[in-house]
C-alpha cells in the first residue's frame, strides 16, 4: 500500500544489519501518507502548523540545494525531541511559490527562521520525513 511505504537504508546492505535511515512514504509523490508522529505531524504539515506545535519559530535551510528545506533546529521548542529522536523533516513550497520573490529570498545554503517574512508567505509543507539512526 503506497501510503504505508518505507525504505530502509542499511549500514551493511549484504546482511541487512544496522539500519542507518528509514525513509517514510519513500518516493510517494501523490496521495495520503498514513505515517504520522505521535504529535500528528505528517506529510503536508505546513510551516505555520509546525511553528504552532513547536510554540516558537524554528530554523530550516533555504531552498534549491541538497538539504533544501531541512529543519535542523527547533530552537528549544516543544518539538525539540523530534531531532534528538532522529526525525528529519524537509519542507517545500507549492509549485506556484517557486516562481515568487519570496522564494528567491530564501534560496541557497543559508539558515532561516520559520518566522522570516518570506517563509511565512510561502508557508512550505513537509514533503519528506526520514528517521535517522545514530549510533
Written overview of the protein:
The chain is 18% helix and 28% strand. With 135 residues, the protein is of the alpha+beta class. The protein has one domain (20-26, 40-132). Strand 1 (6-12) and strand 2 form a beta hairpin. The termini are far apart. The model has no long low-confidence stretch (mean pLDDT 83).
Characteristic key phrases:
4 helices, 135 residues, 3-stranded antiparallel beta sheet, alpha+beta, 4-stranded antiparallel beta sheet, 7 strands
Provide a quick synopsis of the model.
With about 140 residues, the protein is of the alpha+beta class.
Topology:
Layout lengths: L5 E7 L4 E8 L22 H8 L4 E3 L9 E3 L6 H5 L2 E6 L8 H5 L5 E3 L3 H6 L2 E8 L3
Antiparallel strand pairs: 1-2, 2-7, 3-4, 3-6, 5-7
How many E strands?
Answer: 7
Widest β-sheet, arrangement of strands = 1-2-7-5
Q: What's the domain count?
A: 1
Radius of gyration over all CA atoms, rounded = 15 Å
Summed over residues and divided by their number, the pLDDT gives a mean of 83
Please summarize the sheet with the most strands.
4 strands, antiparallel
